[in-house]
Amino acid sequence: xxxxxxxxxxxxxxxxxxxxxxxxxxxxxxxxxxxxxxxxxxxxxxxxxxxxxxxxxxxxxxxxxxxxxxxxxxxxxxxxxxxxxxxxxxxxxxxxxxxxxxxxxxxxxxxxxxxxxxxxxxxxxxxxxxxxxxxxxxxxxxxxxxxxxxxxxxxxxxxxxxxxxxxxxxxxxxxxxxxxxxxxxxxxxxxxxxxxxxxxxxxxxxxxxxxxxxxxxxxxxxxxxxxxxxxxxxxxxxxxxxxxxxxxxxxxxxxxxxxxxxxxxxxxxxxxxxxxxxxxxxxxxxxxxxxxxxxxxxxxxxxxxxxxxxxxxxxxxxxxxxxxxxxxxxxxxxxxxxxxxxxxxxxxxxxxxxxxxxxxxxxxxxxxxxxxxxxxxxxxxxxxxxxxxxxxxxxxxxxxxxxxxxxxxxxxxxxxxxxxxxxxxxxxxxxxxxxxxxxxxxxxxxxxxxxxxxxxxxxxxxxxxxxxxxxxxxxxxxxxxxxxxxxx
Length: 488
Description:
By secondary structure, this protein is an alpha/beta fold. It has helices at residues 38-47, 59-71, 113-123, 143-159, 176-195, 203-208, 241-258, 286-289, 440-450, 469-479; strands spanning 11-13, 24-26, 49-54, 77-81, 91-95, 129-133, 164-168, 199-201, 209-210, 213-214, 216-219, 222-225, 265-271, 278-279, 282-283, 320-331, 342-351, 356-358, 364-367, 373-380, 383-387, 393-395, 398-402, 418-421, 424-426.
């Protein structure tokens, strides 16, 4: 069945930390920062607050970050010893602990270090990423020592669920028996992180690779990766500048992954309007300001059956209007973009200016590959869904589509959307039972049983927080008989 649609401006935003469902490994394949979109860099600089503790080898990242700023002016960062800087348009880093800067295991995750790490996190609630980096301990630590490290970081994760803790391997400099020992200990960390879906900064792996070549030695018949000779030097942290830049690039890549970006992902900038809350030139945020928006996504039931478990701890962005469901279709043309061509779905937040943002306060990203052409469907719980009439175009790594500027941007044209104000188009309201058609069943099953009630209700077509005659007369009655145009 073809269903009638309204225009909505898409771009999603949510204020919450997102924990990756699967682990992330940052290694030598994660150093091409040119792949990271500019909007993701901006998002990192706005939202990541990093606590970074280390000994001398760890300064490699600091030095590399400084060098990268010179190479690429967009990669601005600010790090300070013993406190968290507050600099706009920069990745802000608290380096060390509150009272000292050379951080051994005993200064972060063993003995007194436990309390010192807690002090930093307790006194700086803005911090949402924390990482400690090894020196040469892997050369002589046994498996029991490494297990204490793993258990300690896991304990921090349990204590601070809003902070992402980064696990790390140690330097790959040592040869001989010491090199073999650190190889085994690093392998133990890698296996733990993979098996338990942790975030791993594989410092040792980055040490060993240069220009597609891995350096290695043979120890007692076994091949052991070691630091690549291209990195020999003493420019900073016992290595040369090239090595420090590689580590810094990997750090930026890691932050991008933490913000939801993936090298195989696409970023969407979408705009759409909803008829119900639309007033003059933008949308009201009454459901938000009244505290009625749910913290969990509302599309896990019929007819959407969306299985994602997205939720937020709180809604702090006052510009959020409501939750949306964004659907991607991969087809040769719009007429062929049926439900059989759906390749991914994701919930999002709609802002009052029509933009859609993701739940981790970043651009909307999908980890997909497109074989044909990309078409976007936007759905809402009491408005008719809409689909892009044309393939979504890519510009500078960003896929952009604005449903609000012309009826022809929506599949089905005037039958699929509505002019809400001169030259401004939007999605059609009044579909209380979410069946893709505005008819009497919306009144019988949704509006009538809820009349006079307040809350987050399907019959509240105008988003005023209460179901009354205005919803029926001003929204539903105006659209009765309209059918959604999104291809089945």
